[in-house]
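Is this the right way to post structure tokens for a design question? Let me know if I should format differently. Anyway, here goes:
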């Protein structure tokens, strides 16, 4: 008891806490979360579909960044990300 936590474990706890706060916010907004990756410097949370309407305004989708990349199985897909609570919220579309 009272054992100090090392830097790496502290860093992982901070990422988990940030991801949990962001996921809670997304769930409260009615968004479906498909998977979470806390391995990168900023946790990535993937959502089912692109936010639209009032939800897009709440998530500040106007600040999003989009890239085009090869899609699994061929073709291309656009991948869009925004920042929420220190996490990267990401969704993809097949044009």
């Amino acid at each position: 008891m009272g054992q100090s936590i090392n830097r790496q474990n502290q860093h992982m706890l901070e990422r988990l806490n940030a991801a949990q706060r962001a996921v809670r916010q997304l769930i409260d907004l009615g968004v479906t979360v498909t998977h979470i990756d806390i391995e990168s410097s900023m946790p990535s949370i993937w959502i089912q579909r692109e936010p639209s309407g009032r939800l897009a305004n709440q998530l500040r989708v106007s600040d999003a960044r989009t890239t085009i990349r090869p899609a699994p199985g061929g073709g291309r897909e656009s991948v869009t990300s925004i920042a929420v609570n220190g996490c990267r919220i990401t969704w993809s579309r097949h044009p």
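Format looks fine. Someone answered above. Worth noting: Helices lie at 7-28, 53-58. The longest helix spans residues 7-28.
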